[in-house]
Design a protein that fits this description.
The chain has 495 residues and is mostly helical. It has one domain. The protein has 21 helices and 2 strands. Strands 1-2 form a two-stranded antiparallel sheet. Strand 1 and strand 2 form a beta hairpin. The radius of gyration is 22 Å and the shape is globular.
Length: 495
């Protein structure tokens, strides 16, 4: 007779699932409310979504339980804590952008807000586990929701963007599952900490198999991180998406992928297999360099920001090559500061969006659109200039501190050549960011009507933009406490 299986509540550690449970409950609540009544406005769903995200954030920050939970597949360490906070804070900034002046189909639909919360839950599962299956479930949950949200913009380019993103995402999912299969075949486990122990104790494991699994995982995560040569979808998807959603995509999916890459690739590099570090090193250098060079020749500001986000991702991936506690803390510092600045820049594009292409047959936001903006709307021109200076890494604005700290971590760990390449790429980036500043301040204006630049503005959007400017310009005040917080959390995670 079979004995009954005994499961203790302590081993389940259900509070570790509370943040994801809250956000999933919120998504289901929105679906049920929409089934009951169709009379509620986007303002109601926006506020309801923000309420559940704030509750989720409170659960994340207030968690005091064990690091492991739910049969040890959930991992709530310092890295998971930081990344969840970044995901949720970015989401709180994004949702009010739905309350724009113009009417957009997706924001009138309750399904958009439900999908948005499902997407957040997917990203949270990605960063709170070292189990390759749960990471995959989180990745696909978030991706499928995101594909649909892009298509809901209901424009020809939006449908094209969603199809491209879905096709590339399906290919990346195949690479991921093949990689996980190889790791399981080599070690008998799909948990990263168990894979690490097996690879360190079993010297007979095939090096060729490890390298093959690493290549496949690099391709899968490289897609999410827009790493070259898996970046080709990025500018087209950003162009087809709304500026608000493009800004969100430039931050949140990448921080989730950074965490998975950090957990897996830093472990693999400790095996001292030259091929692995060499591949990641080459991808990082090519990504930041090609992203910057391609951004130089763009005619549209949104596409320029898309290529610049590719370069920023390559820059931040350097932290994974370095692998020190200092570098990992620098990764989170950089991305937190980048989050506010990049969201601010995309919010500016969202605010100035016009339903007709007034300036170019193809592009919504060509550089010529902003020509002479300082004469029409000085405040908007100065605001956009602050974001461009910050993204270029000019002191004392936000991204400068992230770049400085990552360069310092590279030098301190002996990666001098990498630090030089990072510095040179930062210099290249200055040119294309300053190109927009030149158009705004030194070119003749194309229109005397300042209202067309504020056609999508609302008090809430202006408030978000103001907050982003204040954080971008005054980041020097918060860098030290942020860095101390990140160092503490990363040290707790064993990195």
């Amino acid at each position: 007779m079979l004995e009954p299986i005994s499961i203790s509540m302590q081993s389940l550690n259900l509070p570790s699932l509370l943040p994801m449970a809250i956000i999933l409950l919120g998504a289901l609540a929105i679906v049920c409310i929409d089934l009951a009544t169709k009379s509620l406005t986007k303002s109601f769903y926006t506020m309801l979504g923000i309420l559940f995200i704030i509750l989720d954030l409170g659960a994340v920050m207030g968690y005091q339980g064990d690091v492991r939970g739910f049969f040890d597949v959930v991992l709530v360490d310092g890295i998971a804590n930081i990344s969840q906070i970044i995901i949720l804070v970015t989401s709180i900034f994004f949702l009010p952008l739905a309350l724009s002046q113009q009417r957009f189909q997706e924001f009138a639909m309750a399904e958009f807000y439900a999908l948005f919360l499902f997407m957040i839950a997917g990203f949270q599962f990605m960063v709170t586990s070292d189990n390759l299956i749960l990471i995959f479930i989180g990745l696909e949950t978030a991706s499928l929701a995101l594909y649909t949200m892009i298509a809901m913009h209901n424009r020809k380019k939006a449908f094209e963007a969603a199809i491209k993103y879905f096709t590339m995402g399906a290919l990346a999912a195949g690479f991921y599952t093949l990689s996980a299969l190889i790791f399981y075949a080599l070690t008998g486990s799909i948990e990263i900490h168990t894979i690490e122990a097996a690879l360190n104790t079993n010297e007979s494991v095939s090096v060729l198999g490890i390298v093959a699994a690493t290549i496949l995982m690099l391709a899968a995560l490289g897609f999410k991180l827009s790493m070259v040569p898996f970046h080709t979808w990025t500018p087209d998807v950003y162009e087809g998406s709304s500026a608000a959603l493009a800004g969100y995509m430039s931050v949140v999916p990448k921080i989730a992928a950074f965490v998975v890459a950090m957990r897996l690739f830093e472990m693999l590099m400790l095996l001292n297999i030259p091929w692995i570090e060499g591949m990641i090193y080459a991808l990082v250098v090519i990504t930041m360099t090609l992203g910057n060079i391609t951004a130089l020749v763009q005619e549209d500001v949104k596409r320029m920001l898309a290529y610049s986000s590719i370069a920023h991702a390559g820059f931040v991936m350097a932290a994974i090559i370095i692998g020190s506690t200092e570098a990992n803390a620098g990764l989170f510092l950089y991305w937190t500061l980048f989050m506010f600045t990049n969201l601010g820049a995309f919010t500016m594009l969202w605010m100035t969006r016009h339903k007709k292409n007034l300036w170019d047959e193809r592009y919504q936001h060509p550089f010529t659109k902003f020509a002479g903006l300082v004469k029409v709307s000085p405040i908007m021109a100065i605001t956009m200039a602050v974001f461009m200076f910050a993204l270029a890494g000019l002191p004392p604005l936000s991204v400068f501190w992230g770049k400085l700290y990552l360069l310092s971590a590279a030098v301190n760990s002996g990666y001098i050549y990498l630090a030089v390449i990072m510095a040179l790429n930062s210099a290249i980036a200055v040119y294309y960011y300053m190109k927009l500043v030149v158009f705004m301040f030194l070119k003749e204006q194309v229109s005397d009507d300042g209202e067309i630049y504020l056609s999508n503005a609302t008090p809430i959007l202006i408030a978000i933009l103001t907050m982003a400017v204040i954080i971008t310009a005054g980041s020097a005040i918060v860098v030290d406490p942020l860095l101390e917080f990140f160092l503490t959390k990363v040290s707790m995670s064993g990195f």
